[in-house]
User: Which sequence fits this backbone?
């Protein structure tokens, strides 16, 4: 089993897919994103790793609850960004229009 399959199995066993709600899972993602921002601001590498992992877990569940896999979402995003052009401005990649 790959990591995403293990996450889906965990979420299934915890009842997230049966009793969970997309809105509350999305709010959970916002919470985890906030924890990531705090960890980055505090330069806390252990917390950064934990928060990124938590975001991936929640995103995996949200994807599943929408009838797709996180792998499909990643592949789709990569297919789009791999063709994107742009430049770095003030530490952020800004895509060409």
Assistant:
């Amino acid at each position: 089993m790959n990591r995403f399959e293990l996450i889906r199995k965990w979420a299934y066993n915890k009842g997230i897919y049966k009793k969970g709600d997309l809105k509350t899972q999305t709010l959970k993602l916002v919470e985890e994103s906030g924890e990531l921002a705090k960890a980055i601001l505090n330069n806390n590498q252990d917390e950064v790793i934990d928060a990124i992992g938590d975001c991936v877990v929640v995103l995996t569940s949200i994807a599943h609850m929408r009838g797709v896999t996180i792998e499909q979402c990643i592949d789709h995003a990569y297919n789009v960004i791999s063709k994107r052009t742009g430049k770095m401005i003030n530490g952020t990649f800004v895509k060409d229009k």
